[in-house]
Amino acid sequence: MLLRDNVYESLRSDILTCHFAPGDDMREQDLAERYAVSRQPVREALLRLEREHLVTVTPRQGYRVNPISLADARDLLRFRLALEPACVAEAIEHASDGVLKSLNEFRRFSGNHEAFIAYNRAFHSALAHASGNRRMAAALCDLIGQADRLVRVSVANLKGHDPAKLVAEHVALIEAMQRRDGRTAARLIKAHIAQTEKRVLPALKRNAVIVDGREP
Fold this sequence. Notes:
Helices cover 67% and strands 6% of the residues. The chain is mainly alpha-helical. It folds into two domains: 3-66, Orthogonal Bundle (Arc Repressor Mutant, subunit A), CATH 1.10.10; 69-211, Four Helix Bundle (Hemerythrin (Met), subunit A), CATH 1.20.120.530.
């Protein structure tokens, strides 16, 4: 991987995992020192992230991590609602029994909020890759990565956050997929994402780094 791609991936990950929180200011020189590179690959990475609406250039000041727009959060979850059921359907139709059986590793979870975010991302990424459709999987994994930021920002404000309930939803979906029961799996994954929206969006509204408009 090229140096500029390494810097881009590292910086993007630091934003999505909230090492750089929404609203944080960033300077090229500080980032160059953080990643032990020159300013050029940092500048290229920031311009890519600006096109992804993750950062904004602030004249004579540097860059700022974009606040999370409620409209954008809703758009992201609705896009996922369209794409993830399609990946699940593809997996049921085309994945081998071995691939579907490998989902059993997600039947159990123990740990804190941060561990749950990692578990949840790994589970939904596994669903994406089980589809066997590389383009769909890449698009869904990108959505899942960006959704991590929503969850991290909102998790302190989430009421009734119960990992056991969410894991139970995962288990029910796994079982439906392993039975190759497409109708039940479609219902379960759509309900799961809809519940995520109902949990996350109200929590985001209570967070100071959230903005109401479509553009930050």
